[in-house]
Design goal:
Layout (H helix, E strand, L loop, with lengths): L2 E5 L3 H23 L2 E5 L6 H7 L9 E5 L1 E3 L9 H8 L9 E2 L13 H11 L5 E4 L17 H5 L7 E4 L8 E4 L1 H4 L4 E6 L2 H12 L9 H4 L6 E5 L1
Parallel strand pairs: 1-10, 2-3, 2-6, 3-5, 6-9, 9-10
Antiparallel strand pairs: 4-8, 7-8
Length: about 230
């Protein structure tokens, strides 16, 4: 596995080049197999990236978009990742893309794990591009530090794509992709911004404990190349 690092002085430079790189990967997938599957993260960090990406000329009608994780709340809720992606990415030229969410209003989150896995396998798998984020505590997707479900989430023999997580340090129960699901992607990006997260990233690179800083499970693996974009 190689780790390709891209550092930038400004957010504008970062999102301009990252959006172009993602679009190129999607174009290649469309040309190769007739469609492309893009998995994105929520939060405030990717909003500028979404605004840039959605205006790129692409056969968006051939692109399926899903999530790295989701809070187990209604998609109409302002803190729903589905709501965020629909309002900020599936606009402009990208409005022609197809979105596939994780949330199921008829099931509690634990009952929904297998259903979510099956839904993603049928509509979004295999992943062409996964864009990860990183929290100030070193979490990625909804794989939070010191969570009781991390052993199962990190088990590469676990072929389930989704896992229910109940964070101790964040609101809402969450559905998250497992590590094996993330590492199944053809292309993986890690995107974060700012001095505080840069310090978190440097700390993560100096250590090995994936349970205290789950992002290390992606940084230290030897299965897939990883491209890191940060300011």
């Amino acid at each position: 596995m190689s780790k390709i690092i891209h550092t930038f002085q400004t957010q504008y430079e970062l999102v301009s080049l990252l959006s172009k790189s993602i679009a190129m990967k999607l174009e290649t997938a469309i040309r190769t197999k007739g469609k492309a599957n893009l998995i994105v993260s929520g939060g405030s960090t990717p909003l500028a990236l979404f605004r840039e990406l959605r205006e790129i000329s692409l056969e968006w009608e051939k692109v399926n978009i899903g999530l790295c994780d989701e809070r187990w709340i209604s998609p109409s809720h302002e803190e729903s990742n589905e709501n965020l992606v629909k309002n900020h990415l599936l606009q402009g030229k990208a409005s022609r893309a197809r979105f596939i969410g994780m949330y199921n209003e008829y099931l509690d989150i634990y009952s929904a794990e297998k259903c979510c896995t099956q839904k993603i396998k049928e509509t979004l798998f295999p992943f062409d591009v996964v864009v990860l984020g990183m929290g100030n505590d070193g979490h990625t997707a909804s794989l939070f530090p010191n969570n009781t479900e991390l052993k199962k989430a990190f088990d590469l023999n676990n072929k389930e794509l989704c896992i229910a997580i109940e964070p101790k340090t964040a609101s809402y129960k969450r559905m998250s992709l497992t590590l094996s699901a993330i590492l199944s992607a053809q292309h993986i990006y890690l995107h974060f911004e700012g001095k505080e997260k840069t310090a978190v990233y440097k700390t993560a690179n100096r250590g090995k404990n994936i349970y205290t800083m789950p992002i290390r499970a992606v940084l230290n693996q030897d299965i897939r190349d990883l491209e890191v974009y940060y300011t």
